[in-house]
Amino acid sequence: MTHTSTPFVLVCLFLAATSCAPSSTQQKHSETAPLADGVAEQAPAIQDTAAWIDWYNPQGEFHSETVAFLNCDSTLAANRQEVTVYVQSDTVFDLKSIDPKMTGKLAFTWEPLENDTYEDDGWNMNGVHAFKVYKNADTVQIEDLEEILAVEAWDFRDGDVLDAKEVKFLDINLDGYLDMRMKQFSGKTTWYCFYLFDPTSGSFSLQRIDGVTHVTVNCEKGLLYSYAGGSGSSTSWKTWEINPISGTIDPILTKDWALKAAWDDDGKRFFWKSREFIDNRADSRQVLQFDSTFVEYDERQ
Fold it and tell me: So what's the pLDDT on residue 3?
């Protein structure tokens, strides 16, 4: 679903690293959210380390730029609509045209590449620079994207290169409201930033989640998995947990895998693989499990 619009402002979605206790309005809202309807199962206690790791161990396919959804029943499936818009100039969108449950306007500001080339700060972005949310004459939110977006606003649509920024809206935290996703950085892998919509304030600023790619949402457990990067001999994944009351998405587990080389006492090289699970909660950050396994000797020696 693609929207056209009338010109005005710019931005990319951002979320505050801290989360506050949910207000009564948030709690009332959460009662109608898909995740609050008894969808998410209960995680085991952290004291049972093996069961806890197994519960949060990342799952799914990590090769697609499309957000994937696992174990979603028909109710959740009905909330998995996606809306895609393209920003090619100063543009204003009516939020109700994106999600009927939203109100207000979303404005993006745009600056062509040549206008930034010689600026002292060295920032050289073609496209969206900021966004603004407002209702009537009241500004709800202004977000500067200079420190967030590091990729030009050139995108592909129907096989053609388009001088525009793609902005996708989808419900990433399973609260029944569409959140915002933008391409943040692109190299060997494409990274995205997500801005979660807060129905209480009417803004996209509950919490910042950026630098994620190949995202999979597990509706049954209320978890989000992300490929965190890697190389030919190492890979890292992260698991996030969706809070059904506040709607925040909090870091919970990091899984690192690596294939390494070593030499025995006779100078012969061999390979071994390691696997590490890290408790990534804000008040923890400790290694829960580390194991390594001999693979084989290098027969090419």
Answer: 47
Helix (H) or strand (E) holding 259, with range, is strand 249-263
What count of other Cβ atoms lies within 10 Å of the Cβ of residue 214?
Answer: 22
Strands 223-230 and 208-218: antiparallel
pLDDT at 18 over 50: no
Q: What is the DSSP letter of 261?
A: E
Query: Please, which pLDDT band fits residue 107 given cuts at 50, 70 and 90?
Result: very high
As a whole number of angstroms, the distance between CA 141 and CA 131 comes to 8
Query: Do residues 106 and 85 lie in contact, with contact meaning Cβ atoms separated by under 8 Å?
Result: no
Helix, strand, coil shares of the chain, percent, nearest 5, are 10, 45, 45
| Low-confidence winner among 13-22, 45-54, 202-211 (lowest mean pLDDT) | 13-22
Find the Cα–Cα–Cα–Cα dihedral 241, 61, 209, 167, rounded to 10°: -130
How many angstroms separate the CA atoms of 120 and 260, rounded?
Answer: 44
For 196, half-sphere exposure in the C-beta direction (CA atoms, 13 angstrom radius) is: 23
Average pLDDT on 142-166 reads 73
**What are the two backbone dihedrals, phi and then psi, of residue 42, each rounded to the nearest 5 degrees?**
-95, 130
Q: What span, in angstroms and rounded, lies between the C-alpha atoms of 282 and 274?
A: 25
The gap from C-alpha 234 to its chain's centroid, in whole angstroms, comes to: 22
Q: What phi and psi, each to the nearest 5 degrees, are found at residue 298?
A: -80, 105
Q: Would you state the structure tokens that stand for residue 242, as one six-digit string? A: 């969706």
Better-scored residue on pLDDT, 147 or 21: 147
Measured distance CA(102)–CA(149) in Å, rounded: 25
Which residue, chain included where needed, has tokens 């199962």? 41
**In which band, very low, low, confident or very high, does the pLDDT at 11 lie, cut at 50, 70 and 90?**
very low
**Region 235-259: what's the mean pLDDT?**
88
